[in-house]
Design goal:
The chain has 13 helices and five strands. It is α/β, with parallel strands linked by helices and about 270 residues long. Helix 5 links the parallel strand 3 and strand 4. The longest helix has 16 residues.
Length: about 270
Amino acid sequence: MEAPTMPMKTPANGFAPKAPSSQRSEDALAVLGASLAMQPYAKRGVPVADVPIRVVLADDHTLFRAGLRVLLRQAADIEIIGEASSGSDAVAVTERLAPDVLVMDLDMSEPDGSAATRLLTERRSATRILILSMFSEDEFLLPLLEAGASGYLTKDAAEQELVEAIRAVSRGDVYVRPRVARLLAAHQRTRGKSPHDRLTDQYEQLSRRERDVLELMAKGFGGVEIGQKLGISNKTVETYKERIEEKLGLRHRSEYVNFALEIGLLHR
């Protein structure tokens, strides 16, 4: 993932990666991971705000914005003061209303969420920007933080984490999903090692059962078959897979296969 060359708006936690090179981008990710792992929300959640958090919602899907309104109305400390259906609308509404937090979709037009974030940063807006996207963090996280965003959350995680994410960025923290923060922090610990050694270190974080499930998944067995081989229920297999995803970021079978090949599991 290549970071853009423009300087990043420095968040309240002091994280400010500057480098455009691939190596420096890795260094920035490592620093970010270490920093995020120490944030209060990563350990015990974010408390309810003392005063209402004023929020603007920006998404080009009317029904999705309606769903967000219903979700956020459950939080007594969050007040929705405006909405936008495009990037240009998001910039205009944010400059007019000066919300505490702008929750903005990445994939919008006129301009997209990334360009709108950069524009608001260049205009020195005090609003904290939380990107809400259907895309995973892998490709977009660091460039968006460098553009001035204060957090990144995937839409599939919004129901569980959006309220906490809004509270976190309104307090001056940088927010990404706890799983991503842990992965980035692990990256910090493995810098300077070869790719094989890094993967081996990650593999060693798994329990014996998690390793068994990973290996059988990589060999093509389904959840029911894995349960039968290990003498556990399919539900328990799914629990182990969730833990593997949390620790290693593996989601699809192809990723299990590639990981197992890299560390030599499939050659044993």
